[in-house]
Amino acid sequence: xxxxxxxxxxxxxxxxxxxxxxxxxxxxxxxxxxxxxxxxxxxxxxxxxxxxxxxxxxxxxxxxxxxxxxxxxxxxxxxxxxxxxxxxxxxxxxxxxxxxxxxxxxxxxxxxxxxxxxxxxxxxxxxxxxxxxxxxxxxxxxxxxxxxxxxxxxxxxxxxxxxxxxxxxxxxxxxxxxxxxxxx
Length: 184
Ligand code: HEC
Ligand code: HEC
Description:
The chain has 4 helices and 4 strands; from the N terminus they run αβααβββα. By secondary structure, the protein is mainly alpha-helical. It has 2 domains: 2-30; 58-172, Flavocytochrome C3, Chain A, domain 2 (Orthogonal Bundle). It has a two-stranded antiparallel sheet with strand order 1-4. A two-stranded antiparallel ribbon has the order 2-3. It is elongated and about 90 Å long. The site of one heme C has 23 residues, from helix 2.
């Protein structure tokens, strides 16, 4: 009999402790409620747009040949442009300055990364264009972008899984595109 009474006591105590804990947690939440200015990534009023300018940050001012290449975001990702682009844009039908330095025949001498083989193959048909750039690769800026120097509003915790040391700094998708695919 005494044992049962003790057990009931303990159970009641446990319930009290749990309820108390929940109460504290709720009170805590209330205290930390965000103000309206704090709700977005920018710390400004959400009702007023006029004075709010997005932070654009600075693009690299280092000219080609003097910039530092950026590690690939993940294996076979399009490399980010590390250098200044002043005077090179927009890319026009009759003028694509990127090719002046990145075509394989000139790139090495200029210290630029050569266009990979994947850009000289029609990826839809697999046809080797024999040194002719695939038209779908002409607008480099569609896939390659420069980077601004600006603090991240949210920390990016993505960690790329590189399978080799080389794949951190270079790529040629053609070498690995059909990995694991067995042709009949
Ligand atoms: C005057 C020559 C020149 C021009 C024009 C040029 N680049 Fe570059 N580019 C370089 C050099 C050199 C590098 C290597 C980094 C360095 O030394 O600054 C480079 C690096 C790059 C990289 C990084 C490659 C890697 O392996 O990480 C990309 C992407 C790139 N350029 C894209 C472009 C695009 C797109 C254009 C046209 C809008 C362009 N470049 C115009 C010379 C040039
Ligand atoms: C449709 C998207 C797309 C376009 C357009 C494109 N690229 Fe790429 N590029 C990629 C991707 C994806 C990679 C990485 C995979 C690979 O090697 O194919 C890459 C890789 C590269 C590399 C790295 C090669 C190496 O050895 O590591 C260079 C340099 C490059 N591109 C330059 C250019 C330039 C200059 C242009 C414009 C003439 C261009 N690309 C157009 C998607 C594109």
